[in-house]
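Example record used in the benchmark description.
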Amino acid sequence: MSQTVPPILDRAFGHPSGRLGRIGGALMARGNAATERHIVDVAALTATDIVLVLGPGPGVGLRAAAKRARHTTGVDPSEDMLRACVDRCHDLVHAGKVGVRNGSAEATGANDDAFDVVLSVNNIQLWDDLTAGLAEVHRVLRPGGRFVLSSHDKWLPVPRQALVTEVGAAGLTDVQSWTWQPPGRLATLAFQLRAAKPA
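Model output (structure tokens):
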């Protein structure tokens, strides 16, 4: 299921670059921070987990995950955001706990069964192809691995139940979903989801 993202949103948030990308990155770092940390809590990361963060943007969630996990990889289509991740996580990069690479939800460049956990915060609406992205999540998760997602409820690429159905169709099971209100006067309601790859 392919998706079309308006060009201005893509330049600011999907593939951030240049001045508009820097503005988008700053907005993401500030506006997504509470949700990024909340999703790391929901994922219940442990010191043995190998984690993939899809679309880490400026790296707030990447850093939060890396502080708990054994190793965390961020995959983003924007070179500007990958540089921002390295800047934000420089100590963890040097310690060998964080890596970044160019890629997308549909093409992470990772091996099969490479990760214990895949995280996605406020970017599923920017994926080029929802079905392909969820198939990739299934492919890169180890058996028993878990997928945790949060998205602005009003910007979901499909209705809530349709997204739950898509996740199940990708081969993930034990799908649970709920809404969560991030703190802050301007924060919008989040739709969140947790699922697992069968062991």
